[in-house]
Amino acid sequence: MYTAVVALLVVPVFYYLDRTELGIEGSLPWRMVVVAGAALYLLARLFRANPLAILHFYAASLSLYLLSMTGLATKLYLAENSDYEQQFAVTVGTIMTWIVITLTAQGARPYLKWVSLAFSLYYLGMVLFMDPANVGYPVTLMVIGLFSFLLLRNQERQEREKAYYLYELETREQFITRQREELEEANANLVGFNYAITHDLKGPLRRAQSFAQLVERRLPLEERAELLEFFEHINTNLHKISEIIDGLLLLSQIGKSAMKYELIDLNAAAKDIWEEVLPPDSEGKVEFVLHPLHTVEADPGLMWHVFNNFFGNAVKYSK
Description:
The protein is mainly α. Helix content is 80%, strand content 3%.
């Protein structure tokens, strides 16, 4: 829009210079072409046409600016009574117009590159077939037009590549967002499944503990004394299963509630958990070496799971 407003403001100035400074007659029709182009674009903006239509009007208005200067240049290059000062002035004006159009083309580049190429070919035809008074000026404009064509084409290509990369980036961001949502949903389902499983296991475990206690009480004292060691193993493992279930419930709540920090002696914790993990028939087969550890502030339940899995895998996969 600013380009059109500036064009409307400078047209009277240039027409005044044509008449007073350069002595150019008959330039008014070509100056009015600039006015028509600017007015065309401003009317399109006024009636709030769709963006594509506004873009077409913008390309048309810039093309009319170049057409105005080309028409005036043709008039002076082919006129017998035009002097070098007039031809130089119109050449400089055309070059400046072409530069401004190239810099302000923006979304109209796909159209204006072909306009620039067409006017360049027109100046080439002028040199070959119209016998201008000074060949250097139309040749200069032909070169400027070709340069504008190449620059507009390269800018258009860069804009396409930029749009493609932005599209790829948005696509990847959407893919990552969708994956994150799916992962969050899977985690939520896993937490729910974990909670349901651990909750369902507590009932059978309590019944098993109750039946073990009933069996122990109903046995005669002599048999109970003989089987006391086995009942202790049963109760210890049932208690440990209960702790594991509580640990699983704790794991399902990670991220939803704060962890309970306590000072834990890792030496004592490691020894206790090692005795729990070590199978009864592995005595003499597995060597346990404990280097000095420290006291840390951690969640006891989670720390138990760390050592239990670490020692359990060590025993399970040891030769």
